[in-house]
Amino acid sequence: MIRKGSILPLIITLSLTAFFGYILYTNFSKKPNTLTQQVSENIFKYPNAKSWDVNNTKRPCFVYFDGCTEVPSIIEFQTTDNWPQIYTYYRDFLSQGWFVATQIYTSVPDEFLFTNDSLEDGRCEILLKRPREGIFTLDKETSKKTYKFAITCYPKT
């Protein structure tokens, strides 16, 4: 039950939160650069992917807080294949010009970082992540898992 006089502070708090959220989003958000967008559009779609979503929208980039210089392009896809199959496919596919910067010891790690320093316009990194196993990450009816790429390119200056 809300007490008398407690609605005004709630309205003020919500208004200030919305205002500062808008300021942060408009002043500290940017889209991935053109090189990142080009590389993300040229990644081969996984052959058994049930969906393939390339996201090049604006994202917050707090230069002063976390050293963000470039915003990644995100690719999400769903498949019923297992993680080792996906890693093997992209390890073989990205072997031309891309270098696996992840140490492999005894088993397939949860994420891989592919780098390419030989692009004429700059340097790129592709981070391929395995989905976290949990209640909400697996579609029980179809056993599809969602995998994610984060592509970030740094143009030559």
List keywords for this structure.
single chain, 157 residues, alpha+beta, two-stranded antiparallel sheet
What does this entry look like structurally?
29% of the residues lie in helices and 29% in strands. The chain is an alpha+beta fold. The protein folds into two domains: 1-30; 31-155, no CATH class. β8 (138-139) and β9 form a beta hairpin. The chain is extended. It starts with 6 loop residues before the first helix and ends with a strand.
Short description:
By secondary structure, the protein is of the alpha+beta class.
Secondary structure elements and their pairing?
Blueprint: H1 7-27, E1 29-30, H2 34-42, E2 51-55, E3 59-60, H3 63-66, E4 73-79, H4 83-93, E5 99-100, E6 111-116, E7 122-129, E8 138-139, E9 144-155
Antiparallel strand pairs: 1-3, 2-4, 4-9, 5-6, 6-7, 7-9, 8-9
Measured by DSSP, the beta-strand proportion falls in: 25-35%
CA-CA gap between termini:
59 Å
Give the overall shape, derived from the CA principal axes: extended
User: Which residues form runs of ≥5 with pLDDT under 50?
Assistant: none
Order of helices and strands: HEHEEHEHEEEEE
- Could you describe the largest sheet, including whether it forms a barrel? 7 strands, antiparallel
Helical content class: 25-40%
Q: How many whole angstroms does the radius of gyration measure?
A: 20 Å
Secondary structure class reads alpha+beta
Q: What's the number of extended β-strand segments?
A: 9
Number of domain units: 2
Number of helices: 4
In round numbers, the mean pLDDT is 80
